[in-house]
Amino acid sequence: MGETKIKGQGLALYPLSHNLVKNYPSLELADGAQPEWFTAASATVTEEDATGEGLSDSPNERVIKCVTTAINGGVRQSFSPSDERLLTASQTQISFGVWVRLVTAGTLTVQLVDDGVPTQLGSIATTTTTGSFVYLEITDATLLSNNLEIRIYHSVNAATFYIANPMLNTGTAVAPWKPRGLVYRNKFVDDIVSTDPAVTTWTDLDLSTNTSENTVAVQLVTAISDIGTAGRSLWGRRKGSSAAQDDSTVIGFSPGGNLNIMTADFVLCDDGQTIQWSVGNSDVDIVRISLKGYWEWE
Length: 298
Prior knowledge:
CATH superfamily of the largest domain: Galactose-binding domain-like
Strand order of the largest sheet: 1-4-9-6-7
Radius of gyration: 22 Å
CATH topology of the largest domain: Jelly Rolls
CATH architecture of the largest domain: Sandwich
Helix content: under 10%
Number of domains: 2
Order of helices and strands: EEEEEEEEEEEEEEEEEE
């Protein structure tokens, strides 16, 4: 059977996978912050609101902004066959598409790379168009034996460019864009934290041993008590977040002289599966945090 394909949107008469690109749009939706799972390569990389950046032709209200700090600087994202069930080294065909917009004149390049060697996979896609979004795609490349890496970079130092709607599929074409979904995994691990805290600053909690490499957020069961003083709180946030100790981050509360247990439904992790926790007062005498389950990229 032949195929029907529309350039730029990649419709085909054979199955294509869901989008494998992680964390676009960024789950934390924080303008000016580097989105997790995206690596800056000789560049500063932040997610921004398209309207705020003056991008009236953007295909998405959220965009990734790159400002290079060297020639061929840009952004990367890596995929390991050991973490991605749809990728099989030396067998899987892959295709990638993305919208790009150059502000600074030069050449923008999209490349798929086996980052163990490194070796280019398939062709490259380039544009020199400035002032409007352009769609670039690489189709029907084949994985080698190492991790896959998407690379998007600019030929000029101190150049600005934007990307939107990145789409990575297994198969020989690019599917219509959609964000990657999450899957919940039920896993209970008791008392990952069990302590009498001595400080009120944010403390790292590495959850990588009890979650997967693709974990996005965790569900926690927490316990907190104090010595007869009402209104003591326990807070949690993603490592790297600037969120404050307030109602938006509270994951436990003691009304006074009691051990209070509650479930925190959703605490974001960074891409190393680390969160941070803190208490507001040193008279808190018990903090316990247990893992109930976690969400990972589908």
